[in-house]
Amino acid sequence: MCSAVISLGAAAGSMVYLAQQTKAATEQAKIGNAMAGVTANDSVLGALREVHLLMLERPGIRRYFYGDQPCGVQDESRDDVVTIAELLADVMNIGIVTHKQVPDSESAAPWRHYCESTLRSSPVLRELIREHPLWWPDLVPLGDGLNGQQPPPEPDPGLLHPTVSGSE
Known about the structure:
Structural class: mainly alpha
Number of strands: 0
Largest sheet: none
Number of helices: 6
């Protein structure tokens, strides 16, 4: 009888220990996921900074991406604008892909808003995505409805920038 009580006590102790270990593992997973989200967002924003630096080196280029300025075939800066548009589309697309892989990221919705807003204000980006939908497949749904048709509704105004989570 005494050995049965001891065995029962040992089993109960093991269960308590196992529950504590499981709780600790769950907490570690949450921390790991949060860190993955921060790292992924930082990586995407770093790439976006590089594109913005290219824009800074070329005065007047920014308007083609954030100022709704078309870039005609005869425009002397067309090659620069298209190249930067391709780089920006790469960054935007990889940002969406990255946020899909880290679903708990608090910056997924702001990033999507940034992409939608940029597509809305950049005829050259919309043109590229329309011409090469397989190059940036995750941007295609965001650009739907922006090709001379009615634009999509404005996103939540609380989502100001990819670095702002809206829960300030």
